[in-house]
Amino acid sequence: MWAASCLASCCAACACEACKSVVGGISRRWARIAYCGLFALSLVVSWILREVAAPLLESIPWINHFSKTPSREWFETDAVLRVSLGNFLFFTILAVVMSGIKDQKDPRDKLHHGGWMAKIICWCIVVFLMFFLPNGIISFYETTSKFGSGLFLLVQVVLLLDFVHNWNDNWVKKDEQFWYMALLVVSLVCYVATFSFSGLLFHWFTPSGHDCVLNTFLIALALILVFVFAAIALHPQVNGSLLPASVISLYCTYLCYSGLSSEPRDYECNGLHNHSKAVSTGSMTLGLLTTVLSVVYSAVRAGSSTTFVSPPSSPRAGSEKPLLPVDQMDRHEDKKKEESKPVSYSYSFFHLIFSLASMYSAMLLTGWSTSVGESGKLVDVGWPSMWVRIVTGWATAALFIWSLVAPILFPEREF
């Protein structure tokens, strides 16, 4: 028994030292990816608790205070929302603490890039404390998350616009026939997928024998926007490309599908109600995948000249400075050693992306359901979540059109 106790103590000590060495070895360069890892950990914890935590939550009196015990699904949703709230508070606090950082001399810069052991412990404590909150607070957070999720979808749109424009620019800069052909092929594939997907939308959400004017209008509007994108992109004054237009067209069509599939299951124009479980699982998986890709992309792209998280003071956000005269070079080098470099991206906005992503991931894992109510009854996906996604699609179209026409309307400004 004594030997086993010593062995267990040694293993615990070794594990602790290993964790310290791992988190201590996170360099400044990899800090942003480490935040993505922490966010991914929150998704894993939420997923696990959704599957196994229901019996435990049923035994907690300040959570299960109903006269009639709610269904198991109610407790699964509640567990996900509590982890999400802890994750949201953790990153929101970091966003507030990191606001206003302009150069690396600021002591908060070290907090952003270091102290990982302390941050992981704080994250665990914050998430743990969420399970002591009353149901009313969780209910308020669930309602707020629907609006926060809409904001995150807009963030996804900006990230997607940044990605497709850089993708197009990188291939065009190669100035070779092969890459021009690649642009054309990818664009055609996106357009074929868009029109094929639109045909399926008419088949699924405008069944014969029912008056589905709303669904017909939404699908037709998405198709009209496809032609509008192409027309504007190919206009001589815009000098655009079909690649961004085709990718955004496909994304808007997907958002239209996502919104229509969120219509109430008893709505006669929702032709997927017979396959609601498979559709919900597929939508959740795809949504989580795009969420993880969005936060990873925001972390990797933070600090580039085109990303929206770069502050004006960033050395990559502005234009190149003229070279100093030769007689001032030595003095400049000495001064440069004393002064800190400006930060390359906004730390506060960077953490805000993770806060909004926490809300959106909670909605995906819970099926956009209402977790807490006096009756303890779940409300399945319905009109609020449907309109959140439809309006996001319209906002995507507006932002893309603006990105094309803004340089023409305001040629003196950089976009």
Tell me about this structure.
With 415 residues, this protein is mostly helical. Helix content is 70%, strand content 0%. It has 14 helices and no strands. The protein has helices spanning 2-24, 31-52, 54-58, 72-97, 107-113, 116-129, 135-173, 177-205, 213-233, 242-261, 276-301, 329-338, 347-366, 383-409. The radius of gyration is 25 Å and the shape is flat. The N and C termini lie far apart (69 Å).
Overall mean pLDDT stands at 77
- How is the biggest beta sheet arranged? none
Helix content: 55-70%
Name the poorly predicted regions. Answer: 1-25, 303-307, 312-327, 333-338, 370-380
Strand content: under 5%
Structure summary, number of beta strands? 0
Distance between the termini: 69 Å
Shape: flat
Structural class: mainly alpha
Cα-based radius of gyration, to the nearest Å? 25 Å
Task: Walk me through the topology.
Elements lengths: L1 H23 L6 H22 L1 H5 L13 H26 L9 H7 L2 H14 L5 H39 L3 H29 L7 H21 L8 H20 L14 H26 L27 H10 L8 H20 L16 H27 L6
Helix pairs in contact: 2-4, 2-11, 2-13, 4-6, 4-13, 7-10, 7-13, 7-14, 8-9, 8-10, 9-10, 9-14, 10-14, 11-13
Protein name: Serine incorporator
InterPro entries: TDE1/TMS
Family: Belongs to the TDE1 family.
